[in-house]
Amino acid sequence: MSEISRVLKTFVAYLKRPDLYPELGRKIIKNTVNRGNAFKGKEKTNSWAASKAISQKEAVSKLFGIDIDPFKNNFAEILKEAERRQNECPIKMGGAGALELIYYSCEFANAKNAVETGVAYGWSSLAALLSLEKRGGTLYSSDMPYLAQDGDQYVGYVVPENLKPHWKLFRFADKESLPKIFADSASFDVVHYDSDKSYNGRFWAYTELYKHLRTGGVFISDDIGDNSAYQDFCEKNNIDTTVVEYEGKYIGVFVK
Question: By C-alpha distance, which of 86, 102, 195, 191 is closest to 143?
Fold first, then answer.
């Protein structure tokens, strides 16, 4: 599919969904007036992140006092099945990330309520749910419909059926999903951000999510090198964050 065809298909799909009109308006502004917003402060933050970065294994040990090595052995069959489902999926989305960091964040926080933005195949959802289900907990997820791919039915595709009773999925942009989520649960033990990549979108969501993260809870943000929103947020709030280097990208994580 050409870029023009993809854009037209996405636009028409938005027009069929009045509930998504607010996000359509934001996307038009983001891709016209605020085109540079996505990369604001990128060079500064990549230099900062590189100077602080440690491995996922080091970060989990430093923050939580936990060894990540057992994770892949303990859940080998589940992860193998999830990979098989990803490979058979006809829609291409984002792959697995730092699963151990997410899982052990939930373990450390003894999490019963967690919130994430961005789902795709559902790898991060799977990692969180493997911990949450032990305590009868709930994962709240915000994820936009995949309008250009007709891929809605594949969102969370790798999450097994037995974990879905612990999962509430909200299919709107963050600015619509998060107020609905906060109305259902006002406090969270773990926050994982991996959605809107723009500076303004990130900073807004970070602020809202941080308000609803309990003291002692864990905050995680993927792809913090895209722009300086995460660095600026941490500096504004005097947060001493750990930076994880994972597959050439940077993840931010701290305990509130």
Answer: 195
